[in-house]
Amino acid sequence: MAVPTTIAAGTPADFSKLRQEIVEAASSLGIDKIGFTSAEPFTALKDILLRHREKGFESGFEEPDIEKRVHPELSFDAPRSIIAIAVAYPSKLPNPPRSEPGAYRGIISRSSWGRDYHDVLRDRLAKLEAFIAQRVPDARLMSMVDTGVLVDRAVAERAGIGWSGKNCAVITPEWGSWVYLGEMITNIPFASDTSIMDQCGDCTICIDACPTGALVGPGQLNSSLCISFITQTKGYVDDAFKLKIGNRIYGCDTCQIVCPKNKGMNWTHQPELQPDPEKVKPLLVPLLTMTNKEFKEQYGRIAASWRGKKPIQRNAIIALGNFKDVSAVPILSELLLSDPRPEIRATCAWALGRIGGEEAEAALARAQAKEQESAVLQDVEKAVKAMSRSKLNKME
C-alpha cells in the first residue's frame, strides 16, 4: 500500500485503502464490529462527567482525571483518529444447573462468563496493531480496554459502533448490547464513521426494571445504587441491598436482559468467551470455604476475580440468606464465630437471622456474647431482633 512520505502529511483519503483493509480483516482478527472516529476532544462529555461527579454518581473505579477522559491528546502525542472495536459475548447459558434445596446456586453476570474480557480484547487489539504496523511501520498505536483513560462508550458511540442506551450500555444493531468495547488511538488520519441514531425511543423498560432504581434517568446511572457495583465492593452491604441482590454473586444483567433490542440475541462464535455452567452458576456453600489458591485456580481467568474472593464469598452468604437455606446454618455459624473478616461475620449474622431456627439462634447468642467489633455486633443484634419478630409473627 502506498503511503505518504510522513503520516503527519497524510489525509484520510491517503489511508482509505488501509481503512477498508482493516474493516475487511476485522472478523479474521476476532473483532465483530469496528468503527473509526476523530481524535478530537469529547467536549460534550465533559459536562456530563462533571454533573455525574457533583451528584456523587461515580463508582470510584473510573479514571479520576476528567480532562484525560475527554482529551485523547493528553495520553497520546498528536493523535489523528481512534479505532473502536466491539466483540460479542453470549447471553444464554447452555444446560444451566438448577438450584435445589440444600444445593442452592449463585449467578455471575454474563460479562464474566468466559475468559477475562480484558485479556481477550487486548489480544484482539494486539492483532489489529500488528496488522496495521505491518502496512504502516511508523504508525503509532495505543490500545485501551475498560481500564484506559477514555470512556469506551463515548468512543464507540461516536465511531458508529452503536448508540448509548438508556441503560448506559452501547447497543449495536447487529449484536444488541452483549458486546465488549475497546479502542485504539493512532496518529493515522482515518476517515470517521457516522454515529448511529438513538433507537430507544420512548422505551423505559430498563429504567423501570432496575432492582434498586440505580438508573436515575435515561443514560444516567447512580453507581452507589447499582447492584453490579455493590457486588464488587469489599465492605458492608446495606440490608435493603442484600434483599435486592438475590442470588447474584457478581454483577447484574437485569437492564440488558429486559431490553427489547436484546431479544433473541445470543452469541457463541467466540470460543474464549463461552461459559462453564458450573463456574458461572456455582453452588454457594462450597464458595464459603474456598482458599485463595482454590479461588485463583477456579476463577482466576474470569473478570469476576479482579476484586478477590471476599466480595464473592460475602455475596454468596447474602444469597444463602435470601434462599433461607437451612442446610447452610452450620457453615454460616462457624464463619460468624471464627472468620477474621468483620464483613463476613456481619453478613453471616444477617443470613442466620433470615434463615432462623434453633441452631441459628444459638449461634447468634454465642456471637452476641463474644463479638468485639461494634459494627458486627450491631448486625448480630439486628439479626436477633429480626428472628424474635419472626417467631412472634408465627405465633400470632
From TrEMBL:
Listed SUPFAM superfamilies: 4Fe-4S ferredoxins, ARM repeat
Alphabetical list of Gene3D superfamilies matching this protein: 3.30.70.20, Leucine-rich Repeat Variant
Top-rank lineage group of the source organism: Bacteria
PROSITE patterns in the record: 4FE4S_FER_1 (PS00198), 4FE4S_FER_2 (PS51379)
Classification via Pfam families: Fer4_16, HEAT_2, QueG_DUF1730
Domain 4Fe-4S ferredoxin-type: 191-220
Keywords: 4Fe-4S, Cytoplasm, Iron, Iron-sulfur, Metal-binding, Oxidoreductase, Queuosine biosynthesis, tRNA processing
Protein name (Swiss-Prot/TrEMBL): Epoxyqueuosine reductase
Biological source species: Paenibacillus marchantiophytorum
Gene encoding the protein: queG
